[in-house]
Design a protein that fits this description.
Strand order of the largest sheet: 2-1-10-5-6
CATH superfamily: Oxidoreductase, molybdopterin-binding domain
Order of helices and strands: HEEHEEHEEEEEHE
Number of helices: 4
Largest sheet: 5 strands, mixed
Number of strands: 10
CATH class: Alpha Beta
Distance between the termini: 41 Å
Number of domains: 1
CATH architecture: Alpha-Beta Complex
């Protein structure tokens, strides 16, 4: 049979693709507490009613990043810990080109895929090692490392740093 791949080629391809598919389909446990963050929309990895829902312990259990930066809303340097937005979007299998991030009070901002990069914004859940209460912009805040990259010191980027975050919709 001319033009058909050999069995050996098919097996080799399957061995190459299997780890990628397994990583993309990583099972998300269900939250044990009230979810702090619900991700929906164009995602492929869900755990609760077609969404990817995360409680505090789930977020804290992911790979985290800590950085220190000044913000235009706080006094002095702040040390934030959270999950990189890029890692979170990869974990939920986001296929869209933009997210709509919404706060507890329904304030919403759109964040384009080009911001979902290593070393970019995080979904912060700790400030100075402590949980952030709602009155202090918590419990979740999308924070950019403003001091580390001058291109993050613009009105457009500042407008994307949404606090009291509780839901994200991945848009096509």
């Amino acid at each position: 049979m001319l033009g058909l791949p050999s069995l050996r080629t098919l097996i080799a391809l399957a061995l190459l693709v299997a780890p990628v598919a397994a990583a993309a389909a990583k099972d998300l446990p269900k939250p044990e507490e009230q979810p702090l963050l619900v991700v929906s929309g164009a995602i492929s990895n869900t755990n609760l009613d077609g969404t990817a829902s995360f409680d505090f312990d789930m977020l804290e259990g992911l790979d985290t990043v800590t950085f220190t930066t000044k913000t235009i809303w706080t006094d002095g340097e702040q040390t934030f810990t959270g999950v990189q937005l890029s890692d979170l979007m990869e974990l939920v299998g986001a296929t869209g080109n933009e997210i709509k991030a919404t706060a507890i009070n329904d304030y919403a901002v759109n964040i384009p895929r080009e911001d979902w990069v290593d070393g970019g914004p995080i979904v912060a859940f700790l400030n100075h090692g402590e949980k952030m209460p709602v009155r202090n912009k918590g419990p979740l805040w999308i924070v950019y490392p403003f001091d580390q990259r001058p291109e993050y010191q613009t009105e457009q980027i500042y407008s994307r740093a949404i606090w009291q975050l509780d839901r994200i919709i991945v848009l096509d």
